[in-house]
Write a structure and sequence with these properties.
187 residues, hpI Integrase, Chain A, 3-stranded antiparallel beta sheet, 10 helices, globular
Length: 187
């Protein structure tokens, strides 16, 4: 049975993604881009790995990613910021996550292994709890971040869940979490 994935801290994950993206090392740039797109879009790993530039509308303030979710078959759109948009535009081929050095598509397993090293401290902490932090953690991070900023309806829509209860259960939101948010908001 798969261990439950824990979310990451959005700001820390974003910072690590940007640092990798700016490193100019080929594999680090790809991992950084994967992290950043993952935490901003909430896309599943298979949908991220299959992204093509031809699916993207580039704008002055970022880019709109048009996709069809592999799991559900639902069409969707997601937005990414200008740093991600610029990084995508700099890729010389249509496939964003194609390994030019090995002439193959990057795999779910490869990206998971890289994420375990990028988020080594977070991964070890999760393992001690009988849980994990992996590629799916990016989706949970995105959902939780969007939920905290714009509520369950927006998070549900972005994650393409069938209902509110699915999203709340997925994000592990409890009455205590809600009370803490209200306390932070009004205290």
């Amino acid at each position: 049975m798969n261990k439950e994935s824990l979310k990451l801290d959005y700001d820390k994950a974003y910072g690590k993604g940007v640092k990798l993206l700016e490193s100019k090392k080929y594999y680090d740039v790809k991992v950084g881009l994967f992290i950043l797109i993952g935490i901003q879009t909430g896309l599943r790993s298979i949908d991220l790995l299959n992204l093509n530039k031809s699916q993207i509308e580039f704008k002055d303030n970022g880019a709109v990613l048009n996709y069809t979710a592999h799991k559900t078959g639902k069409d969707g759109q997601a937005f990414v910021d200008t740093s991600i948009s610029n990084a995508i535009q700099s890729i010389n081929r249509d496939e964003i996550f194609f390994n030019e050095l090995m002439k193959v598509q990057f795999s779910h397993t490869w990206i998971n292994r890289r994420l375990k090293t990028v988020f080594a401290t977070e991964y070890k902490s999760a393992i001690k709890q009988g849980l994990t932090r992996n590629v799916h953690s990016l989706r949970k991070t995105s959902g939780s971040y969007i939920y905290s900023k714009y509520g369950v309806e927006t998070a549900r829509e972005v994650l393409q869940h069938s209902g509110y209860n699915v999203t709340v259960a997925y994000l592990k939101e409890t009455k205590e979490n809600h009370l803490n948010k209200l306390e932070n908001l009004f205290a």
